[in-house]
Structure formats: C-alpha cells, structure tokens
C-alpha cells in the first residue's frame, strides 16, 4: 500500500513538473516574441529567407503581422524586398507602425483578411498574438492560459485578391504568409484563383482544434498541394503538456 502511495506521489510530482516546464517554456516564448529574439524560430526564418532568394521572390504579404515579429526576423535573415503587413488590432498595429517608419519598403494596413470584405468580430487574447476571428477551444486555453479572451473588437476585413490589386503585387514573385490563428482557410478563400499564382505560401497549421471550426493542418496541406504548392520547410510551434504537437509553421513553394 505504501509503495502504491509513493508511486502515485511520484507520478503526481512528475505531472506537476511537466506542467511547470510547459508553463516556463510558454512564458519564455512570449518574452522572446516581444523582444524579437524568438530563437526557436530563427533557423526556420533563415531557411525561408534563403528560399525567397533562390526563387526570386521579392515581396512578402504578411497576414497576421501582430507587432511585426515575423517581418523583422525575415529582414534580419537577409530579405531586402517589399513587405506588406496586415494587422487588425489597434495596439499591435501601433507598435507595428513604429517599426515600419524606419523601413521604406515596409508598409501596412490595420485590417484582417478573410473570405469576403466587410466587418467581423475578433476575439482579443491577453497575449495579443493568439487573437482570432474564431473562438478559442479549451485545448488551446489549457496549453497556453495567456491566450484567454479578454475582449471582443469589430475590425475591417479585406480579401487577398483585393489587397493584391490595390497594392499592385505580382503573386508570381510573392510569398503569402498567413498566421491568423485558425482563420487560415478563410484567408485562402479570399485569395481565390491567386492560389494558383503565388510563388510561395506559408501557413500556421494546427494539428488539433485550437479554434472552433478551424481547418486542420492536413486539410490545408492537401488544399495547397492541389494548387501546385508543396511543403518545403517547416518549424514546430506549441505543444501540449503531453508532448503532442499542436501547431507548426510550414512554407509551401510552387512545384
């Protein structure tokens, strides 16, 4: 009986340690993102920059820019082309705007992207970068409590087709990067036939339902493969306390 009790205590201790480690990892990741020093993603962004250079891609459409972490890291990795960022949250866009002032080839719009132009309600997370036009699931909240919704906000929505026309972007020389927290399928819907034209597309893929009604990573991968885009390189994102991969970033390139 005592042995069983000790074993139970040991398992409970291990569970607490595992949860504590995951909490520390997520806290560190948030701090690194804020400081533009997300070391876990830097090698991936370097590979992205190498791919852009090798394929003559000179424009990055940065959908879900937040405060500009991704664009800043792509710049640091050597990308010297044009960047067009989309970010609907006013606070995040304010920080993004301050960054863009020192870069003549980096512009932005305070909008979200979706299947149709109009207005929509975004669920604003405490950590900002988990904010989404879709509601959070309990699984996501358990993996990262800082993703909890703290308010809702109405934002403007544009389509990628409309943005490309407005900005005079040549999709054949552009990367469409989409990090919209589960809303990736709707963004692709708004790109319509341009999915057959973009030189590369980068998506944040979810391997479990982290936002209600989102498309799975497998579905989005199959969708892009049907449009002539193959997985090229990828990077692991967040994982659950049980070790299950929940999100990853994947770069797809034109076949």
Describe the structure in your own words.
There is one protein chain. The chain is an alpha/beta fold and 255 residues long. The protein has one domain: Rossmann fold (3-Layer(aba) Sandwich), CATH 3.40.50.150. Helices cover 37% and strands 24% of the residues. The chain has eight helices and ten strands. The protein has helices spanning 2-34, 42-54, 69-76, 90-100, 138-143, 160-167, 184-189, 217-226, and strands at residues 59-63, 82-86, 106-109, 112-113, 118-125, 149-158, 174-178, 200-206, 229-236, 247-254. The chain has a seven-stranded mixed beta sheet with strand order 3-2-1-7-8-10-9, sandwiched between helices. Helix 4 (90-100) links the parallel strand 2 and strand 3 (106-109). The protein is globular, with a radius of gyration of 19 Å. The termini are far apart. The model is unreliable at 1-35 (pLDDT under 50). It comes from Nocardioides currus. InterPro entries: FkbM_Methyltransferase (IPR053188), FkbM_mtfrase (IPR006342), SAM-dependent_MTases_sf (IPR029063). This is Methyltransferase FkbM domain-containing protein.
């Amino acid at each position: 009986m005592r042995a069983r009790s000790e074993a139970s205590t040991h398992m409970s201790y291990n569970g607490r340690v595992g949860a504590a480690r995951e909490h520390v990892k997520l806290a560190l990741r948030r701090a690194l993102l804020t400081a533009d020093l997300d070391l876990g993603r830097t090698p991936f962004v370097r590979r992205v920059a190498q791919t852009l250079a090798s394929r003559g891609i000179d424009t990055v459409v940065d959908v879900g820019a937040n405060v500009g972490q991704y664009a800043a890291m792509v710049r640091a990795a050597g990308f010297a082309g044009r960047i067009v960022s989309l970010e609907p949250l006013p606070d995040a866009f304010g920080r993004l705007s301050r960054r863009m002032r020192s870069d003549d080839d980096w512009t932005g719009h305070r909008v979200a992207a979706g299947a149709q132009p109009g207005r929509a309600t975004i669920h604003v997370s405490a950590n900002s970068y988990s904010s989404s036009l879709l509601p959070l699931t309990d699984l996501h909240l358990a993996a990262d409590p800082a993703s909890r919704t703290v308010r809702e906000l109405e934002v403007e929505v544009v389509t990628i087709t409309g943005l490309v026309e407005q900005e005079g972007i040549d999709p054949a020389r552009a990367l469409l990067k989409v990090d919209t927290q589960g809303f990736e399928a709707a963004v692709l819907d708004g790109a319509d036939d341009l999915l057959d034209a973009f030189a590369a597309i980068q998506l944040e893929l979810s391997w479990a339902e982290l936002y209600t009604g989102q498309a799975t990573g497998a579905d989005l991968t199959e969708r892009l493969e049907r449009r002539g885009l193959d997985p090229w390189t990828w990077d692991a994102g967040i994982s659950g306390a049980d070790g299950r991969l929940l999100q990853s970033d994947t770069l797809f390139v034109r076949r």
